[in-house]
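Recall the central idea of this unit: under ordinary conditions, the amino acid sequence of a chain determines the structure it adopts. In this exercise we apply that idea directly, starting from the sequence alone.
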Amino acid sequence: MNKITRFTAAAAILLLSFNSCKTTKPAVETPQEETVVQDTIVSTENPEVIPEVPEKVVPVAKKEKINPPLNIGEFRAAWVATVANINWPSKSGLSTYQQQQEALKLLDFLQSHNFNAVIFQVRPQADALYQSNLEPWSYFLSGEQGKAPEPFYDPLDFWIKEAHKRGLELHVWLNPYRAHHTTGGEITNTSIIKKKPELAVKLENGMWWMDPAKEETQDHASAVVMDIVKRYDIDGVHFDDYFYPYDSYNNGKDFPDEKTYAEYKAGNGKLLKADWRRDQVNRFVKMIYDEIKAEKPFVKFGLSPFGIWRPGYPQSVTGYDQYEKLYADARLWLNEGWIDYFTPQLYWQINQYGQSFPELLGWWESENTQNRHLWPGINVGLGGDEKNIDETINQIMITRGMLPESRGTVHWSVGPLMKHENLAKALVEGPYRKKALVPASPWLDDTAPEIPEMSTGIQNDRLQMNWTSQQPEDVSKYVLWFKYEEGKWDYKILDGSVTNFSLQYIVGDKKRALDKVGLTAVDRLGNQSDFKEIDLKKT
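Accordingly, the structure predicted from this sequence is:
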């Protein structure tokens, strides 16, 4: 039986139960009305200016968009973790050539398996996998904090260029507050722990954490984010679930920020400590979003919080309380629209009582009041056997069914995808058998490129197509649409630099000829031009 059709009965029932959930379809814009007022008339006998009565208000309707035959939007991303050398590089101290070859292998895999984005960790412990004047080179690159790659290169710049060559968005993933990881080697004089010891505290498991409530912590983390946004051609900025640390990192003891809170209280602060901590994180999240948009509005900001907001939301959910333990009010960030995409870490299975994947996804969607992208994170590290392959594919299919207007999934992580060949094969032969576009973000920009001008001709039994765009610099990709006689519409996604293509004019034993073709242009934010089909029988 085909893996896609092995949709468990339980999963199907759960999916049906959520069909009533709202989708992330953007709100329909109200046509703007324009008032036409004639010139005023001045009487020569009476100098009083008498305005004419305005003409009837004439509504100016927005041009109706002509959509292409299929919705091919779906965010397909994988995390690439550098902390502890989880995914890349495989170990510290590799040569530049070895690091680059490993990176290309990962990116080639994502391209060949029809992913369209990579979430690359560039700041695992207040350090940098890129050239920075604010923080030291990462230990996970060279094996020595502060030591640059040899021969020199900028890993982030390399990853961006190679990802874009392969049609992949690159989102930089940063940990805003972690100052040192237990696997992070010796703390050198280049570390923020040595440079600004007043900001960092040591936890009992050996990690160091910057105090999130200190203004200098927030300012420093903000400066790091904006340095990357300004200098690199990234597509997104991404934070995960590490705000205040998990209490297990400190053997269950409270985070040691007594002095910071005492200073707040001495300044006539009224909030209880837990509310004060959450307020500090909330302010930081909103600040980052606003600063990114002020600099480069097209750069998306994504957050990947722990998958449960609070036990009891929804009612049957049990588990860790991020609101109370991590001081992360993730529901607020989603409600307020302080993000462009939201990726709760839903690492549980479909039929897991207390943490059911579709039940949690449905609850988060009910909180998506600003219609942002909701692209859940799923765990592909359960193994490559048939049961776990079915689980992964079923979760993708449930996500598609529940969020049809803005589909998407983020996979934790790229390592298991490459390790388990049967899983990778099932994806590319199943739900990922065709490439997809990253869904548009209309709240950032909804102006689509103009329709390309295309000419066609038949040469050597192939349909030759050439096209031009009025503003080629605005085009990131083209989608070539085509349909054979008695067939359905199909498509190919092409790079924005491509200006011609050819298709076999006659296919199959029945000698079916190409019936119709069309071309749409897509900009960097996923806005797709109007669709205009060419009926080949009439040309």
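The chain has two domains: 75-429, 453-538.
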